[in-house]
Amino acid sequence: MMYLLVIVAFIFSLWAQFRVKGTFNKWAQVANLNGMTGYEAARRMLDSNGLSDVPIEPVHGALTDHYDPIHRVVRLSEPVYYERSISAVSVACHEVGHAIQHKVHYPMLVLRHRMFPVVNFASGVAPFMLLAGFLFSSLNLIGLGIIFFSAAVAFQLVTLPVEFNASNRARQVMVEQGFIRNDEERGVAKVLNAAALTYVAAALVSVLELLRLILVYTSNRD
């Protein structure tokens, strides 16, 4: 039964990835009525929140947008940076939402940053521990692998409120400052919700896989 749930969750994850790409492409064809590029929307949102010193850089690729908290820079994919679409301003403002979180020390973002060094190590070690544990029938190694994998799962769960909060900040600013008009809110919501769904799906897959590993571990101990 657990295997079936993991497979279903994995299929859901694939569907979520296709959906975010499809939703982004759909609303990338719809120009925002104010004619702002993603860069212009991000710049205005940063400046209005006292973040004039945070630069914005274009990067190659699609959906490669992110906020770099180490160098304090917003990086937007070229389709977002240059285009004047609903998708472009939605994604750009979402990334600025992370910059605002950084400024105000949003607790879940602070926690996420503190977890990252540990999780970065744990996620690299976990697969080898689990593989060695199953190859050599070592419950100790499997147990260690599960502990390390748990850290990666916890990181994904902490990421969820960070992403939802960034989207909420983006939508609020976009409406309050007139980046979008009332009839454009639907498109913005669809783009941001589709993006959030990918994080939900990834977390669900990880949680179910962790539960499966725990069940395997406990059944072998009995």
TrEMBL record:
It comes from the Bacteria. InterPro entries: Zn_peptidase_2. Keywords: Membrane, Transmembrane, Transmembrane helix. The chain crosses the membrane at residues 115-136, 141-162, 196-217. Pfam families: Zn_peptidase_2 (PF04298). This is Peptidase.
